[in-house]
Design brief:
- This protein has 680 residues and is an alpha/beta fold.
- It folds into 5 domains: 1-129, NAD(P)-binding Rossmann-like Domain (Rossmann fold, 3-Layer(aba) Sandwich); 143-287, 3-Layer(aba) Sandwich (Rossmann fold), CATH 3.40.50.261; 289-447, Rossmann fold; 488-560, 2-Layer Sandwich (Dna Ligase, domain 1), CATH 3.30.1490; 566-677, D-amino Acid Aminotransferase, Chain A, domain 1.
- It has 24 helices and 27 strands.
- The strands form 5 sheets. The chain has a 7-stranded mixed beta sheet with strand order 8-7-10-9-11-12-13, sandwiched between helices. A 6-stranded parallel beta sheet has the order 3-2-1-4-5-6, sandwiched between helices. Strands 22, 23, 24, 25, 26 and 27 form a 6-stranded antiparallel beta sheet that branches.
- Helix 13 packs parallel to helix 14 (383-396) and helix 14 packs parallel to helix 15.
- The longest helix has 20 residues, at 428-447.
């Protein structure tokens, strides 16, 4: 990534475009100068200058070398500008100009990509909102200029990135880098992530996405970064309406949100729902030491906010343990007799800065992090409490998040805490949510990212020429050949074969119709259960043949009558962004009513399959309730892992499902199967 240094740390910048008052190039040149960039020039047909940025009619006329071009001129001029950049040695460009693929002009975008490659130029855009590198005095954007900090944000939307920087400016917690990559003609989110992974000015990466490009490569990049530093993501398009809006905005399809959510968790990213939450979680990562456990203490001077903080903490998976008696004894040494000591530690309205400091230090001796709330009054100063909080954080070296509300000097107190590296949040609920996010990241990193399960080498095609659906006997054989447990079965093309097969399998049996044109067998009477003799089998065969008249009747498939186990469903589908995806959930009525389904990008390991099983809401049913025997989840995990490999082994499989899978105290069996090809 050495070739990106000129993009983030240029020593000189040329701005292209009309330099008249109120024009984009005029504003951009001013932003660069205000941000501290000393060597700025402006290129426009009239050679107009902007303040101390001298104007020229051509880049070829600039007497000293230029490192970066910031282009805000008409789309048709961009190609020739890049050619001039190549002639003068400029190696980086920010192309703010629009009118390319987002406007249906893909050919012109292809031309500028080719021009950049010929001339060794790396660029962001076109159709982007620019970029910021506060540590390099680079403000090449029309958006709000943020203070300097350690959060970097990559945004598919310039406006969202601008809003994020506005939050940063309002809060005072700063940004290291902002990149709006627009159409991603050259640099994409993948390369930008990998650059920021090694950037020593970036402690945490915020990412806003509308679509996920190259889903599996994206997962690989995020997994690499998350091993080093956290990645916090907002992805829009959770709802059907939101996906339609994303489609309209970006011109490419957004994948199903549940699949995207699973993929982000799989590669170690932390997903949030709102821009405000994105900023606050990043602020926590940027300011606090690592949260290495889930035990937290809450110190407050107001009971109600303390209790609400406890509620949200427990909902977020944090542990609010009652203060041990030995610690209570130490607290009693300096707190008034009416203070609450259980956790939350309630100092009441009489809590002083010294009380806060001592209580936080004492509580942190038994906990991994602390949230400290000060709810003051307009006539009392908050600074003594702020100093006590900062002192406790320094003394313990542990994460301390603050909530400072109301006080004669509340803004000054918040600013003091910010300078001391203590983040302030608007409420205790928000603070504990951030602490929980940070704990989750450290837990995943401590376990180590499990390597992605490699796709299997293709072992052939599942479907013959012109075929897009496997008949049930063919599908069952494919499962059996790939280590997936199925009942004993036999295909019979005649009554005599059916009787012989039933006798071999052993009564009672099940008979199902086999016809490529009958999909929902039960709806047409194509399933006969609990057949106990030859006559029953002959009668069932005759009925199957009758209901299949004119529908390409092939015969029947025969199974033993199975004991009904706990029903689950396993599915494979193909996501437009991530490719093959494995789904697992409860079968039968649970599938339709509860929609208790979990996803992973396939294939998955046995360990990942066990995680899927344990995270559904109905998992307690599989463990056994009210004296029921537990189900064999180990066998189920083996089946999920083996089934997840099918789409890799047989690339012509589009989707498949096992429904139901009967799960027993010992073992699991796929009782029914459907496999569709990509030509369906």
């Amino acid at each position: 990534m050495d070739d990106l240094h000129s993009l983030f740390y240029p020593e000189s910048v040329a701005v292209f475009g009309s330099a008249g008052e109120g024009k984009l190039a005029n504003i951009l040149a001013g932003r660069l100068l205000d941000g501290g960039m000393e060597r700025v020039c402006v290129i426009n047909p009239k050679g107009e200058s902007v303040r101390e940025a001298k104007g020229y009619s051509s880049l070829l006329d600039v007497p000293s070398p230029v490192d970066m071009a910031v282009i805000a001129s008409p789309a048709k001029t961009v190609g020739s500008i890049l050619e001039d950049c190549g002639k003068t040695g400029a190696k980086a460009a920010v192309i703010i100009s629009s009118g390319f693929s987002e406007a249906g002009n893909a050919n012109m975008e292809r031309e500028i990509i080719d021009a950049a490659r010929r001339n060794g130029i790396r660029f962001i855009g076109p159709n982007c909102a620019g970029m910021v590198c506060t540590h390099g005095n680079l403000v090449a954007t029309l958006e709000t200029a943020p203070p300097t900090g350690n959060i970097s944000i990559i945004s598919q939307s310039g406006a969202v990135g601008g809003s994020f920087m506005a939050l940063s400016a309002d809060d005072g917690f700063g940004i290291a880098k902002f990149i709006s990559y627009g159409n991603g003609g050259d640099l994409t989110v993948l390369e930008l992530l990998r650059y920021l992974k090694g950037d020593d000015k970036t402690r945490v990466i915020a990412l806003y996405l509308e679509t996920v490009p190259s889903g599996r490569e994206f997962m690989k990049a995020v997994q690499e970064v998350c091993a080093i530093k956290p990645v916090v993501i907002v992805k829009s398009g959770r709802t059907n309406t939101g996906r339609r809006a994303a489609l309209s905005h970006t011109g490419s399809m957004a994948g199903a949100d549940a699949v995207c959510d699973a993929a982000l968790r799989q590669c170690g990213a932390y997903r949030v729902d709102t821009l405000q939450e994105l900023f606050e979680v990043c602020k926590g990562f940027g300011a606090l030491p690592p949260v290495t456990g889930r035990r937290i203490s809450i110190v407050t001077n107001s009971g109600g906010p303390g209790v609400m903080t406890v509620d949200r903490a427990e909902m977020s998976g944090l542990l609010i343990q009652e203060t041990p008696d030995t610690v209570k004894d130490r607290l009693r040494e300096f707190l008034p007799s009416f203070a609450g000591l259980r956790n939350p530690i309630d100092l009441t309205v009489e809590g002083t800065g010294e009380h806060y400091e001592a209580a936080a230090i004492t509580a942190l001796s038994e906990n991994d992090a602390s949230v400290v709330l000060y709810i003051g009054t307009p006539y009392l100063k908050a600074m003594p409490v702020a100093k006590g909080i900062a002192s406790a954080a320094r003394a313990t070296g542990k994460p301390v998040a603050a909530v400072m509300q109301v006080g004669a000097d509340i803004e000054e107190s918040r600013a003091y805490l910010r300078e001391e590296g203590i983040p302030c949040f608007s409420s205790g609920e928000r603070a504990v949510s951030v602490i929980s996010a940070m704990a989750s990241y450290e837990e995943r990193r401590a376990l180590g990212s499990e390597p992605r399960v490699s796709d299997a080498e293709p072992s052939g095609r599942a479907f013959g020429a012109g075929c897009d659906r496997l008949l049930e006997p063919e599908a069952m054989k494919l499962l059996r050949d790939n280590g997936i447990q199925v009942p004993e079965f036999a295909f019979a093309g005649s009554e005599d074969e059916a009787v012989a097969s039933a006798q071999k399998i052993g009564f009672p049996v099940v008979v199902k119709v086999v016809s490529p044109r009958i999909i929902h067998k039960s709806d047409r009477g194509g399933v006969a259960l609990n057949l106990r003799g030859d006559a029953d089998v002959r009668g069932a065969f005759a009925k199957m043949r009758e209901i299949s008249e004119g529908m390409d009747f092939r015969g029947v498939v025969i199974y033993p009558m199975l004991a009904v186990g706990r029903e689950v469903i396993i599915g494979l589908t193909t996501d437009p962004s991530f490719g093959p995806v494995i789904a697992f959930g409860m079968g039968g009525v649970y599938t339709e009513v509860l929609r208790d389904i979990t996803f992973r990008v396939a294939p998955v390991s046995r360990k990942q399959a066990l995680e899927m099983i344990r995270e559904i809401k109905m998992f307690p049913l599989l463990r056994g309730v009210r004296g029921e025997a537990p189900c064999d989840v180990e066998a189920l995990a083996d089946m999920i892992a083996a089934f997840s490999m099918l789409s890799s082994k047989y690339p012509d499989i589009q989707e498949a499902d096992l429904n139901p899978v009967f799960l027993y105290e010992r073992g699991a069996l796929a009782a029914d199967v459907r496999i569709l090809g990509k030509g369906k």
